[in-house]
Amino acid sequence: MTQHRVLLAALLTACATGTVWAQKSTAEGIAEYRAMLADGNPSDLFEAKGEGLWQQKRGPKNASLEQCDLGKGPGVVKGAFVELPRYFADTQRVQDMESRLLTCMETLQGFNAAEIARTPFGRAEQVNMTALAAFVSAGSRGMKFNLPNNTVQEKTMYEVGKRVFFARSGTHDFSCASCHAEDNKRIRLQDLPNLTKNPGAGNGFGAWPAYRVSNGQMWGMQLRLNDCYRQQRFPYPLFGSDATIALGLYLGVNGKGGESIAPAIKR
Amino acid sequence: MPTRRKALQHSATVASLLAVTGLFPGIALAFNAKAFEAKNLGDALKALGAGAPVESKDVTVTGPDIAENGAVVPLGASTTLAGVKQLLILVEKNPNALVAMFNVTDSVDANIATRAKMGQSSDVYAVAVLADGRALFARKEVKVTLGGCGG
Amino acid sequence: MGDPMRIRAQAAGSNATVRVLMAHEMETGQRKDAAGKTIPAWHITNVSATHNGKPVLSAEWGPAVAKNPFLQFTVKGAKAGDKIAVSWKDNKGDTRTDEATVT
Asked: Which CATH number fits the domain that encloses residue A112?
């Protein structure tokens, strides 16, 4: 009887102070939080820095990146991100945005690509690489993914990407598919996009580079994949490695028609 | 003087020098360390020389009900009252309660928004300090949760 | 001199809504590094804003303001073409001022 009265008192108090039980679902609350953050995205700071770096004469050759060919011709940034990864005849490789930026930094500016690839994220030229990635991705903001995927090399890399995606490995037998091959999966409060098809693939691929509020860092797709590898207890993937590019191509092709929101803001 | 205004408009360097040397009239570049070390709303207001806080419907605190990550929580303070001198944002359960203090002039709306770090779920306060020293507040609970591994 | 801010000032009726993104670590002084040493506090302590050179807002910030801080306020009587300047100073004495035109 006393317990009943206590519960009743608690309910009345709750109503009196204006709180209503189960007024808003957690998912709605999180959605509201994300909407509040969308205006005023610190990615803008990195995008601005990247734009400056694109135009600035740097490196041993004291040249800018304004002649860099990201797949749509020298210097064309608009729409380049939503067509990457793609095959490049000059390097005879399928390349993603970050490895292509690295190629340009070497050929146009004279930087040592291998050294930058070995540099940990967040240090030295990798910091500039991230800012450049934010800038280049911003050039395709709101555009739809449309990777050409029409050469033998690209089609092969797509199949490689699919194999890598589904391959179980490491100490825990994880694969990308463990988390990202089914609809409606989540880890705690994080929804896990199904990356094998749209809308998950387009949403997942088009959200990086992104500013992560949880650590205040700007992450490109290379770092995003690197961190997935870490979580799966896989060995450290090399920056711009074929495996990471193949995965990017797999996601980008699966995400065809999806809208790019990069550079985005994430938890 | 038009010349001084033009100088400010055309030279960010001049503006920054003026800001640092405190030549903006009426705005001291002090930092009230005591207020920022206060552990609760009452102590922070005491350090600012304001009165004891009174809850008021004329003050509003804006923020999400639940923040996915405590590192960045959008919080705002506003009031419809006239004669507001300062707007404060406080997070009760933070190591130090006072997050930010805004000196409001007649030239801006008494409505400021920023983003704060919250160590844990906590009550959040918006306080309006009036010219006569009265302090009026609104309070809201903001839940903070850490999400999963991805995203 | 700190890194550049992004300032957007949009006319809305007879006022202008100003949104600022500042680049700053806002280190609380509560964190420890891998060796167990406390990372010293490093944060913006003062912010001020002017409208066509006239001071309109100032603020004191503690370390609990989020990293890469966001600030939004509304300037009364500001119209397209007016200048909004925002300055900050941190506890190490570093400063930054940027300006934007109301659109």
From this structure: 1.10.760.10
**How far does the CA of residue C82 sit from the closest CA of chain A (Å)?**
21
Q: What is the CATH number of the domain that holds B86?
A: 2.60.40.2470
Residue A119 lies in a domain: yes
- The mean pLDDT value for B123-135 works out to 95
Please indicate whether, in this complex, the C-beta atoms of C57 and B105 are within 8 angstroms of each other.
Answer: yes
User: Per the omega criterion (within 30 degrees of 0), is the bond before A85 cis?
Assistant: yes
Cis peptide bond upstream of A263, omega within 30: yes
Residue found under tokens 């995203």: B151
Give the span between the Cα atoms of B150 and A187, in whole angstroms.
Answer: 8
- Using CB atoms, which residue from C53, C65, C85 is nearest to B99? C65
Q: Is A55 contained in some domain?
A: yes
Long-range contacts of A238-241 (CB under 8 A, 24+ apart): A238/A117, A239/A98, A239/A99, A239/A102, A239/A116, A239/A117, A239/A118, A240/A95, A240/A96, A240/A98, A240/A99, A240/A102, A240/A117
CA A106 to chain CA centroid, Å, is 23
Q: How far apart are CA A226 and CA A244, in angstroms?
A: 8
**pLDDT of res. A191:** 86
What ipTM, to 2 d.p.?
A: 0.95
Q: Please give the residue of chain B at the shortest CA–CA distance from C51.
A: B107
SS3 content of chain B, % helix, strand, coil (to 5): 20, 40, 40
Please tell me the distance in Å from B3's CA to the nearest CA on chain A: 32
Residue C99 has pLDDT above 70, yes or no: yes
Does B59 share its domain with B37? yes
B128 and B59 in a common domain: yes
If you average pLDDT over every residue of chain A, what do you get? 92
Q: What is the pLDDT of residues C6-23, one digit of tens each?
A: 999 999 999 999 999 999
Q: Do B68 and A26 touch (CB under 8 A)?
A: no
Give dist(CA A117, CA A112) in Å, integer. Answer: 9
- The two structure tokens encoding residue A210: 């992104």
